[in-house]
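Format notes (please read before filing issues)

Several people have asked whether sequences and structure tokens are stored in separate files. They are not. Every record keeps both together, in the order shown below: the sequence lines, then the token lines. Line labels are part of the format and must not be stripped during preprocessing.
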Amino acid sequence: EKSKPVTITLTPGSPFGFRPTAQEMTVVGLVMGAVALVLLIACANIAGLQLARSVARQKEIGVRSALGASRWRLIRQLLTEATMLAVLAGGVGLLFAWWAMRFLVAAISNSLPAVWGTLALEVDPDLHVFGYTLIVALFAGILFGLAPALEASKPNLILVLKEEGAALGVKLRKSRMRDLLIATQVAICLTLLIAAGLLARGSSRALRVEPGFETKRVLGLGITMPPGLGYDAKKSGAIVRQLAERFCSVPGVRSVARGRAPLFGGLRRASVLLDGSQQESKDRAPTVNYSYVTPNYFDTLSIPIMEGRTFTEQEARAGTPVTVISKATARKFWPGQSAIGKQVTLDASRQFHTSDEPYPTGHPFEVVGVTPDLRSVWLSEPDSDYFYMPMPTDSYYESMLVRAENDPNALMTALGHEVKAVDPNVIVYAETLDGLLTNNTAFVFSRIGAILSTIIGLLGLLLASVGIYSMVSHTVVRRTHEVGIRMALGARRTDVLRLILRESMRPVALGMMVGLAASAAASRFLTALLFGLSSLDALAFVGVSALLCSVALLASYIPARRATQVDPMVALRCE
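Then the structure lines:
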């Protein structure tokens, strides 16, 4: 026989061998965006320190300017210092990132479900990484060095050469640039922490979400026939039927059903025409989810029938064309009407399937029952449509459900013995439906996103708190003379403390208002990972805001309190 042409498709390893879903791309985009925002926090932090340092160097810069240095030369000198600092920091950061990436890949790999296999990534830096780091470092150096350089390179020579340190401290206190940098750090940090809080709350909610079916005492079994050993559809179907019969006799088993385990994969799609209507061609007909199940499938999973009935054993054996649909399907195709008795035509001949599996080929089916809306396709949202078809008696279907009286894990050994007794070559994968919930792609990526965003958010919080502390400390030191005058004139320590805290927290409050608005706008992009949690969840917004406000207040209070402990006479002699 003449050989047929074969097409081989090679898939790059970088996307893990599959097309990323919207949920996965949301997590990737979230992490990349969070890292960029942390870089901005660091740049704003260093810019604030550079600004404070440039104020302390006003006399030096004024002297250079008086001796003929142009403003461009001063800016170039300050930018060069900032860029060298950034390149040095980039080199240190690259070494730290190399170590951190190895740790992170190992941590993520250990947290992935066992059925996902092993995550193997090459994270050793190469020339591309070195080049990227250099570009980012140069960009960061210019970003955090430009504003202080512009501010410091335009001194009033007469005032600068006359003013003492205390007067310069007043200038720093009134610096809008300093307040803007603090507000920027707070706004970005709040946005990151609220995103982390929402994802953490969403992952927690996923563990409590009600999918609409029993998960505690049900095992999902995936049955695979070994290839190349002559297991055709008839032989495979007979083996599956024997397994179902033998499983029923195992002590502790309440019922055994054949059909797709929720969240287990094996989902089928078919084109649908309603009531024999031909107004739409098959090419333009809507597609729906469907699967074949045995009549006791609904009882095994504790899925109630809201309207009508389920199909019977006699109908399954006779191949009677009946179907049970979900409530969402009834609303979608027959809004405001009863779906019972309606005729639908399913055609899966144009969809992917193997020659061994049953599939509808254009025959009309009568709707006999309606189930509640389940979360059997995606844990993050209810099924948009679903048709349950009666499974032919001896057909091969790769999924099975075993309902236990008590703990389903206790049945694993006994079920394994039954599989070996029927055919030791058959491959069976077993997992509780609770396990399938936590192995679900949406839940796993939501959990990874929550962990990574929390780590990045806490890093941003650390940077922002250090920045606030440093700027307030520098301001307080430069205002020591002013503090001494106030206290010498009768101001109480609490009055001075309140004054410094009020001025320090003003940009923090501005940044929090901007951050709350930005978080409210950005949180809607996380909806797919929140499992029904509102993107404006009050607990996440209020809790994170309270945390950030407390940290900022503490970072301001420590240096402010230290300023009030200074002896007024010593402060008056301080320049």
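For reference, the curators noted about this record: The chain has three domains: 57-163, 165-210+439-575, 226-425. Confidence is low (pLDDT under 50) at residues 164-174.
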